Amino acid sequence: MTPAPLSQYLRDLIAAEGPLSVARYMQEALLHPAHGYYTRREPFGTDGDFITAPEICQVFGELIGLWSAAVWQQMGSPSRIALVEFGPGRGTLMADALRAVRIVPGFTDAAELHLVEASPRLREVQRAALPDIDVTWHDSPASLPPCPALMIGNEFFDALPIHQLVFLSGTWRERSIGWDRSEDRLAWTQKRAGPELVELVPETAGPPEEGDIFEISTVARTSMAEIARHIRRHGGAGLFIDYGHGRSAFGDTFQAVQCHKPADPLAAPGSADLTAHVDFDALLSGIGAEGCNAFGTVTQGAFLSALGIEHRVEQLQRNATATQAASLRSGARRLIEPAEMGTLFKVIAVAAPGIPELPGFGPPRDRARA
Ligand SMILES: C[S@@+](CC[C@H](N)C(=O)[O-])C[C@H]1O[C@@H](n2cnc3c(N)ncnc32)[C@H](O)[C@@H]1O
User: Fold this and answer.
1) Is 43 touching ligand 1 by the criterion CB < 6 Å?
2) Beta-carbon neighbour count of residue 20 at 10 Å?
3) For 325-361, how does the pLDDT look when each residue is reduced to its tens digit (9 = 90+)?
4) What confidence tens digit (pLDDT) does each residue in 70-91 have?
5) Cα of 174 to ligand 1 centre, how many Å?
6) Do residues 249 and 208 make contact, with C-beta atoms less than 8 angstroms apart?
7) 122: helix, coil or strand?
8) pTM for the whole thing?
9) How far, in Å, CA of 110 to CA of 351, rounded?
């Protein structure tokens, strides 16, 4: 059987360059300009591969919008603010957020919308979800305008490429992907690990044992550092929600999902979503290193409850049909229940040095630890 176009491309790439890091594999499988998952497929919703919080319940985006407006007021209501979303998917979160913030006088006039999105196809979907609004798209935070910013991102960091180091016979090697000629398919292998990666394994993870895996997303760390640098220079704050672990630890969290079920990550590149758990500890340390205040992690359940999800659902139910009311209630429950998304999903934030507190969080990380 002839492999699919992306598999053929990867086979040729491996023949030319040797085994690929997991990071390079994720980059190609998700964002290859012709055959990548986000370039080609419609992944969201019940007919797609996975469903995200804003697609489950409108209250998610509404509360995040109101969080942004509250921080804007805390900043003294500046006349110009960049409202930035990273990895906006179908644009649902932003559409819900912008509807909710209309009740905050002056915010809509002050806010200019910027979306950081890698997929040209999803940019078009976002354009359609946000009609009559001036939007500027960006490839990275580097091109954001030099003004205060409020940044948000839901399930953005989990889509960014990771490296996997594996501890074998007393040394760290890089887990990588080669081509098995007898089976004519992608296969796991390993190669020398660059010292620049090995030195990022923190001592707090403990002494490694044979076969332990440590995951490092250099792209996520660089993006968070860029975000924090922008916020330190120009003012503002950022809020990021994702699934992952609060403390850096060993473990293999690289996964593929197709039609709402786990899949083999190497079986059909470009056809399944590939993600890894976010190492929040690493991101929060990066925020501190850039001189900003770092907040979290708090669980999604605790965060949304602190922002008043119950109250907002009750408010909406008053003007809803019985079916709509039931769907609002079950959606909100799914977002906050510990057995659903309430505990696995966590929230972190970054704020300029002049912003010592943020809605939904306790004191910044350094003060909380002091
Ligand atoms: C899992 S989806 C989340 C979508 C949306 N935030 C939601 O909650 O429904 C990941 C999003 O990040 C985008 N993305 C992935 N890698 C990216 C990158 N390197 N730069 C910018 N956007 C990226 C994807 O195209 C997609 O819009």
Assistant:
1) no
2) 22
3) 999 999 999 999 999 999 999 999 999 999 999 999 9
4) 999 999 999 999 999 999 999 9
5) 26
6) no
7) helix
8) 0.96
9) 19
Q: At what angle do helices 322-336 and 309-317 cross, to 10 degrees?
A: 170
**Cβ 84 under 6 angstroms from ligand 1:** no
User: Using CB atoms within 10 A of its CB, is residue 284 exposed (0-12), middle (13-18) or buried (19+)?
Assistant: buried
Q: Which domains does the chain have, with CATH numbers?
A: 40-160+228-248+275-369 (3.40.50.150)
Determine the distance separating the centroid of ligand 1 and the alpha carbon of 30, expressed in angstroms. Answer: 10
Q: How far is the CA of 86 from the centre of ligand 1 (A)?
A: 7
Tokens in use for 129?
Answer: 């979800």
Read off the DSSP letter of residue 134: -
Task: Determine whether the shortest distance from the Cβ of 117 to ligand 1 is under 6 A.
Answer: yes
Q: Is 183 exposed, middle or buried (0-12, 13-18, 19+ CB in 10 A)?
A: exposed
3-state DSSP assignment of residue 205: helix
Pocket test for ligand 1, best of 117, 243, 300 (most atoms within 8 A of CB): 117
What is the distance in A from the centroid of ligand 1 to the CA of 156?
A: 5
